[in-house]
Amino acid sequence: MILTEDQLQDLLDKSLAELPRGTEWAVTLEGSIAEGFGNPSSDIDFLLVGRSEDDLPTMPSLLFVDGRRVEIRTRSVRQLIDQFRAVEKGAKQPGRLFEDLLNRCQRLLHSHPLRGHALIEEVKAVLPVERFRRITADWWAHRARQSLRHAMAMLCLGESDEAADWTRAGLVQTVKSWAAGVGETYLEPKWLSMQLDRAGRSDVRDRYWRLEAATPAPGDTDAVHAYLADCLAFAEDLGLTGVPRQPERVTVERVAGITTWQTGDRVHVLRGRRDVFALGDEAGAVWRSLVLGRPLPRVLATTACTGVRAPGPLLAEFLRYGLIRLAWKGGGTITPSLPLAAPSGPVTPPPSTARPLLSVRGAAVGGPRAVDLMPLPADRFAAAAMSLVWSNVVVENAVEDLTGALQRGQWRVAEIAARRAVHAALRGLFSAHGVNPLPTDTDLVRCLDLLPSGTAPIGEHAGDLLWRTVDTPERGDALLTELRTFIGRVRGAVGADSFPLSFESADTWRATLELGYDWLRIGAHLDAELPIEEARDLLAGHGTQPHQAR
């Protein structure tokens, strides 16, 4: 210990003088100094233990005493006993034991009593040190298995650099498990060198440091294969079980809450009813080829048949985003994690910056291998897509009305139909950019500054058309021509230039219904607002008209 007993007692007296009076505490020194690892920069960690039945604050107080940083924590006897019991209960499933809980218990069990020795020892006796060693060793062993299994899978997927990182993590966790079994249970890896020195096995220590120094250079796949093999052999020699080098034991599995739907050629993947990922052509081909529940090497062989180059990294990206999971046959889901790091879980990438965001055939993507997160919740995404399709139907209907009115010289009717077509086209423009709910029709032109600057000419064109008057056939023909040009510009901007001429024939109306049905299904699944109430009948009829034989 770098401080004498007298120095510790003096620091404790001065620290207690800064705390409120009235409580009798038992006090113990925790942390690296109590363990014999500390240095002049280490905190002085005092744990104050009282018999209060109330929960004492979890947050520590930080004091500065005689040039030293002093951390004060308080716990009641009941809180400490509850911690020990929670560790004992969680020992049956080490993957569910929280690191902070294990760390708190370890620090107390290896602490150095300063006052109220009898009370401190009474609390420590609730969880014998030998039992805690076994629990901690099992906890590290579970993590080592997960890391090494994940490394094996990443190497199979062609992600050699990531495989090297997880192999190194598994190496640390393996030796920490071994060290815990011989009494070195301090969790933080930063003192590992001193723990291995103190453990007294120079053969284990020297072999570990050789492996730690042999981490392969980035991009050296052959070296990663050899490195993984060496680390697995070391782990086996230290008694770690459950990690034979058999990648066929890794299986690709379904994740709860993942839904797939396709519109045209675009594949969309919905995560947890909230996030929408749009897949590029190659990513979509790999996704469609997946047969879940199979060993990873077989899945890779199947995806290779799609003709997509290097499908492994795409599978790895699906895994990172939580769209698939990996499991070990007989060992559950593979969930690698690192100590003192952010908790593992599905990654949420930055949202897509593509504009416009979607078309009637599906979301915009950044390239053939893209797995792009849409920048709005799934229900609003689906509602905007349904609105985009419906807006184009309304455009078609309004153009038909305008054409008929011009043929009969119904000038007022023609003017209203033209305005209706312009407003519907603008609703489609806003919807394609993910705006939902939409501005009112009267505000559409004024709200165009919400959209990218490239849409400004469309707004100017719309403003001109909305105030056109018709009182002669010549003016009517000019309006119809201008309107078709405007509609073409909008549809070109939002990827709807191939939208069916809905009211031209039975075939084009059927194509319109099929297109709308693709989006209605996912919208209904998400309880998104439907564009019109009649859409429910199209859903009930599975894409056919309600009075038509299927």
Summarize the structure.
50% of the residues lie in helices and 12% in strands. It has helices at residues 5-16, 31-35, 77-90, 99-109, 117-124, 129-156, 160-181, 192-199, 202-213, 221-237, 281-289, 296-304, 311-320, 378-408, 411-432, 456-466, 473-494, 506-525, 535-540, and strands at residues 26-30, 44-50, 61-65, 68-76, 112-115, 250-253, 258-263, 266-271, 275-279, 325-328, 332-333, 358-359, 362-363, 371-373.
Number of strands: 14
Structural class: alpha+beta
* Strand content range: 5-15%
> Per the principal axes of the C-alpha atoms, what is the gross shape?
elongated
Rg, please?
Answer: 33 Å
The helix count comes to: 19
Report helical residue fraction: 40-55%
Name the strands of the widest sheet in spatial order: 3-4-2-1-5
- The separation of the N and C termini measures 84 Å
Task: Please describe the topology of this protein.
Layout: H1 5-16, E1 26-30, H2 31-35, E2 44-50, E3 61-65, E4 68-76, H3 77-90, H4 99-109, E5 112-115, H5 117-124, H6 129-156, H7 160-181, H8 192-199, H9 202-213, H10 221-237, E6 250-253, E7 258-263, E8 266-271, E9 275-279, H11 281-289, H12 296-304, H13 311-320, E10 325-328, E11 332-333, E12 358-359, E13 362-363, E14 371-373, H14 378-408, H15 411-432, H16 456-466, H17 473-494, H18 506-525, H19 535-540
InterPro entries: NT_sf
Protein name: DNA polymerase III subunit beta
Organism: Streptomyces actuosus
